[in-house]
Known about the structure:
Layout: H1 10-16, H2 26-45, H3 47-58, H4 64-91, E1 92-95, E2 98-101, H5 112-139, H6 145-149
Helix pairs in contact: 1-4, 2-3, 2-4, 4-5
Amino acid sequence: xxxxxxxxxxxxxRQLCPQIAITVDESxxxxxxxxxxxxxxxxxxxxxxxxxxxxxxxxxxxxxxxQYLIDNYLAYILSYDILKxxxxxxxxxxxxxxxxxxxxxxxxxxxTRDLSFYRTYIDNFIDSKKEEMNRYIRHNAPSYxxxxxxxxxxxxxxxxxxxxxxx
Length: 167
């Protein structure tokens, strides 16, 4: 069963990524949010801290230090990862005839190279936020002990708890 705990709201995603048109259905944002949280965010902070954070969100017990991290780093990383995934979701459709490019009558479809450029641009922003978050956590290490002690259940030797995409 998929956990439907959302770290942030769809309106927060729209606020941080105003390029997501108001006509994009909120359910698409929330569907992608679950996948992005369970991959990108979990990889950023480690499995144990991720589960604890979601439990604290459900129980309305998020600590001040965790809320700071959500507001200043994780919300941006999550929102831009959602944007990146929505680019693909909304540009292509799989049907019985195979993968199709969605075409609208009122706009010009971005070309493959445009999609690639935009995704790379977003990835670079996400990587920058991850690096900034890592520096913040290292500077405030006593407030984030799970970051240093567990990565998907195993000791991680005090290095990045996430992967930064390299070009």
